[in-house]
Amino acid sequence: MQTRLRIGTRGSALALKQTREFIVRLAANEGWDVNDAEAHAEIVVIKTTGDTVQDRSLADIGGKGLFAKEIEEALLSGRIDCAVHSLKDMPSFLPPELAIVCHLEREDPRDAFVSQKAASVLALVNGAVVGSSSVRRRAILLNLRPDLRVIDFRGNVDTRLRKLAEGQADATVLALAGLKRLGAETHVRHIFSADEMLPSVAQGVIAIEVRTGDIKTRDRVGALDHRETALAAICERAFLQVLDGSCKTPLAGLAERRGDSLHFRGAALSLDGTKRYDTKREATTRTAEEAEAMGRDAGEELLKRAGRAFFTQ
Questions:
Q1: What is the pLDDT along the chain (313 residues), one digit of tens a residue?
Q2: Pairwise CA distance, residues 57 & 60, whole Å
Q3: Cα–Cα distance for residue pair 125/220, rounded to 1 Å
Q4: What is the pTM of this model?
Q5: Does an H or E element contain 208, and which?
Q6: Which end of the chain has less neighbouring CB within 10 Å, N or C?
């Protein structure tokens, strides 16, 4: 019998839903009854700084990596065996003692427009207020509609939907993947195409992180890795790493398999949305090394075109 796996996660409804999705796939792979999950897996809820501090923007308190910091500390200390993350919320670089060894099959990576007042961003009245905690979404919204007033909108999905219902904003933009996993698609008024709003790097991807030296857990968890999702995520994160994307840098990237080729689109924007640099790549990509090279090449192109100072704004 396999050793009981201690799985670290944030405590939001979405994080717990994603963790249970991982457990279901683990049970199917290892042949045990998911209804008897407690005998095989323990969910360890860890409160992160990103969850605790809600009165300031992520950029002001240290970036999106604050949704992973305490979980990674628990992993490094041996308190947990693996960690379940929304990969888009992870920092560009991981501690050398930790590694992502499993990517669950990607959910729809697109963004969703949510509003009780308009059917789309273009239908909002002049000067409408849109709530978002994402500098990427803010920059793209302002690039599309410079007249909009974009305010900081922190909290989990339920919190942001409540704020919207209370009238704190006229609209918001949320990851479609999260809404679908929570069964909340009824709130969606419009799904942005990637041409309208290029997604965040690794949006829709659930990643499992382990200690590099824990070979037993690496093998156990790594058996669930979805190859196509992994290649896309590796490509996108390589792009992010070249530009050292932080919560203060509006970056977007999406890699998609089309036939035998991997297609990548990346973008970097100024905070106010007035400047935008785009890049595209396409190649027959079958290995992690090839996917990483594609993402790095795209990042290096934008770095050269925009200049290093653009990415320290």
A1: 568 999 999 999 999 999 999 999 999 999 999 999 989 999 999 988 766 555 555 555 455 567 788 999 999 999 999 999 999 999 889 999 999 999 999 999 999 999 999 999 999 999 999 999 899 999 999 999 999 999 999 888 999 999 999 999 999 999 999 999 999 999 999 999 999 999 999 999 999 999 999 999 999 999 999 999 999 999 999 999 999 755 578 999 999 999 989 999 999 999 999 999 999 999 998 899 999 999 999 999 999 999 988 987 6
A2: 5
A3: 52
A4: 0.92
A5: strand 206-211
A6: N
Yes or no: say if 237 and 259 are a contact pair by the CB < 8 Å rule. Answer: no
Q: Which residue has the tokens 């790095």?
A: 296
State the DSSP code for 12: S
- What residue has token string 């990042």? 299
Cite the active site residues. 89
CA separation for the pair 257, 209 (Å, rounded): 24
Long-range own/partner contacts, residues 74-79 (CB < 8 A, 24 or more apart): 74/8, 74/44, 74/46, 75/8, 75/209, 75/210, 75/211, 76/211, 78/211, 79/6, 79/8, 79/44
Task: Report the C-alpha gap between 100 and 225 in whole angstroms.
Answer: 10
Place of tokens 């009824």: 186
Domains of the chain are: 1-105+205-225 (3.40.190.10), 111-191 (3.40.190.10), 227-313 (3.30.160.40)
CA separation, residue 119 to residues 163, 179, 188, 264, 271 (Å): 18, 17, 9, 29, 25
CA distance 232 to 245: 17
